[in-house]
Structure formats: structure tokens, C-alpha cells
From TrEMBL:
Protein name: Amino acid/amide ABC transporter membrane protein 1, HAAT family
Family per similarity comment: Belongs to the binding-protein-dependent transport system permease family. LivHM subfamily.
TM stretches of this protein: 25-47, 59-90, 110-131, 152-183, 212-232, 244-273, 279-304
Gene for this chain: livH-3
PANTHER family: ABC TRANSPORTER PERMEASE PROTEIN, BRANCHED-CHAIN AMINO ACID TRANSPORT SYSTEM PERMEASE PROTEIN LIVH
Lineage, broadest ranks: Bacteria, Pseudomonadati, Pseudomonadota, Alphaproteobacteria, Hyphomicrobiales
Membrane disposition: Multi-pass membrane protein
């Protein structure tokens, strides 16, 4: 009875007693959720173009951020280093299309999926060779990103908001909205959906797989760079960031692998859910809920709604 009281009564009573803490947790959940959605967007773009989950998206976040910091460490001004990092992600997109994807057109999805594993471990090895394995500090002030914090008198207490979190949320929302409109309203977006349905059919109507794949991988690279900057500004830039990036997998399972709105909703569900669970229910189980909460929610969705909230049901006739 006491355990049931701890699980179902005490957390909600605590929320009512300290609404300022609840607002603080919700804000942190919102920022994490929108950044998870941004990471998931990179996965969605590539999945929509190839029908394959890109396992390399996580390390692309790390590699892009390390490239930016590495250029600046060589004495390159921050804005120029940002432009060069974007150029590197474009070269990566072209290289992946020429060396990996082009020879694998019309191959089974599992072959393309395994190819993304190869890209992942190549980028890990190449990144460690060029940049080393130690954590790096993000060039937050050099990029003119805000620092510091502001406390607001709210709900009978104080809510503290990091300025970088505000910037991260605003930039992520703008990028998600821009890419969503671009890939849903433009000719390239329609071509992307055609490629996802069938490589052969897309080729038969004159759609260039090569061009679409370069555009999509480059867009995913830009998303990875922005994500790496924002996560790196909140902590450090290290190879451990790829673990955070893979949190996008539960987000995709919740929202659906082909849905941009699903990535947003799924990211927010995971962001809010894991922060609330860690703060209010974490003490009951000794903490650590934040590390596994998203995967438990994803498992429940796989059992009861495997297509996700916004995914399309696939009906096969036999």
C-alpha cells in the first residue's frame, strides 16, 4: 500500500506543492524534447529517401561538431569555421552517395542498413584520428550564442532558464519548420517521396536518385551540425554524444519513421516524459530513469502500435 502511495499519490502531490519546480522540469523537458525531435528529423529525411534507418546519424552529430571545433582550433574564425564545417558535410554527402549508395541501388534494405554501420565506424575511426578522443569545448561565445541564465519569479518560486536553452529551442523550431515545408511543398520533396516508394519507379519517371540522395544526406548533415552545436554548448563535444543522438530511435518509433510532425510530437513526449519521470519517480527506484525511460515507451509502442502515432499502417495481402 505504501509503495502504491509513493508511485501514484506522492509525485502528484509534490507537483501541486511546488509548481515552480514543475515548471522548471517542464521547461527542461521541452528543450530536450525539441532537440530530440531535431535529431530524429535527420533520421526521418534519410529514411524517407531510402527506406532505411541511418545508423550513422548519431556519429554525424559528433563528427560535424568536432569539425567545427577543429577548424576553430586551427585559428579559423568561428563564422568561417561554421561555413567550412557545412562544406565538409556536403562533401560527406557526395562521398556517401558516390561510394556507398550509388553501387547499392535496388539492393535489399538490409544491405543499405548495414552500409550505414560501415559509415558509422569509418567516421568514428577517422574522427578519432583527426580530432583525438578527448572531449572538446564548444565555441559558444565565438558563434555569438547567448550564455548565462535568467531567473523568473513564477508560481510562488523561481524558474531558472539557461539562455543557450532558449536559443537551442528557437533554432530547432525554425529548422524543423523550414525543412518540413521544404520537403513537403517543393518538387524535391515530392521526388523524395517517390524515391522512398520505389527506386525503379522514381528512375522511370526521370527522378535522379543521385541528386535526391546528395540533397537529403546534406540536409541531414546540416541537422547534425546544428544538433552538435546545441548539445555541445550544453555539455562538451565528445563521442559520447552519439549515445544521446540514438535517443532519436524511440522518438521515431513513437512518431513514425516517415513523419516530420511525428518526430516533433515523439521528441516532446520523450523529452517531457523522461524529465518528469526522473525528477518525480526517480527517487523511488534509485534514479537513472532518464537513461531507459524512452526505450520502455518505445517498446510499448512496438507492441501496441508499431507504426507509431503518425505512421501509416502497412497492409500486405497474402
Amino acid at each position: 500500500m505504501n509503495l502504491l502511495h509513493q508511485i501514484f499519490i506522492e509525485p502528484f502531490a509534490f507537483m501541486g506543492e511546488a509548481p515552480d519546480l514543475l515548471l522548471q522540469v517542464l521547461w527542461e523537458g521541452f528543450v530536450s524534447g525539441i532537440l530530440y525531435a531535431l535529431i530524429a528529423l535527420g533520421f526521418v529525411l534519410i529514411f524517407k529517401a531510402s527506406g532505411v534507418f541511418n545508423f550513422a546519424q548519431g556519429i554525424m552529430v559528433v563528427f560535424a561538431a568536432l569539425t567545427l571545433v577543429g577548424f576553430h582550433a586551427m585559428g579559423v574564425p568561428a563564422i568561417l569555421a561554421l561555413a567550412l564545417a557545412i562544406g565538409v558535410m556536403f562533401l560527406l554527402a557526395v562521398t556517401v552517395e558516390r561510394v556507398v549508395l550509388r553501387p547499392l541501388v535496388n539492393q535489399p534494405d538490409i544491405i543499405l542498413f548495414m552500409a550505414t554501420f560501415g559509415i558509422t565506424y569509418f567516421l568514428i575511426g577517422f574522427g578519432e584520428l583527426i580530432f583525438g578522443g578527448e572531449p572538446k569545448q564548444m565555441i559558444t561565445s565565438e558563434l555569438m550564442l547567448p550564455e548565462g541564465r535568467t531567473s523568473f519569479d513564477m508560481a510562488g518560486g523561481f524558474v531558472t532558464i539557461q539562455h543557450i536553452d532558449i536559443a537551442a529551442a528557437v533554432i530547432a523550431v525554425i529548422m524543423i519548420a523550414t525543412l518540413g515545408v521544404f520537403f513537403s511543398k517543393t518538387r524535391i520533396g515530392r521526388g523524395l517521396r517517390a524515391v522512398a516508394d520505389s527506386h525503379k519507379a522514381a528512375l522511370s519517371v526521370g527522378i535522379s536518385l543521385n541528386q535526391i540522395w546528395v540533397i537529403v544526406w546534406f540536409a541531414a548533415g546540416i541537422v547534425a551540425l546544428v544538433t552538435g552545436i546545441m548539445w555541445g554548448a550544453r555539455s562538451d563535444v565528445s563521442f559520447a554524444l552519439q549515445i544521446i543522438a540514438l535517443k532519436a530511435l524511440p522518438v521515431l518509433i513513437l512518431g513514425g519513421f516517415t513523419s516530420i510532425p511525428g518526430a516533433i510530437v515523439g521528441g516532446l513526449i520523450i523529452g517531457f516524459g523522461e524529465k518528469l519521470a526522473e525528477f518525480y519517480w526517480g527517487p523511488i527506484v534509485g534514479g537513472g530513469i532518464e537513461s531507459w525511460f524512452a526505450y520502455v515507451i518505445a517498446l510499448l509502442f512496438l507492441v501496441f502500435r508499431p507504426q507509431g502515432l503518425f505512421g501509416e499502417k502497412i497492409i500486405e495481402r497474402i
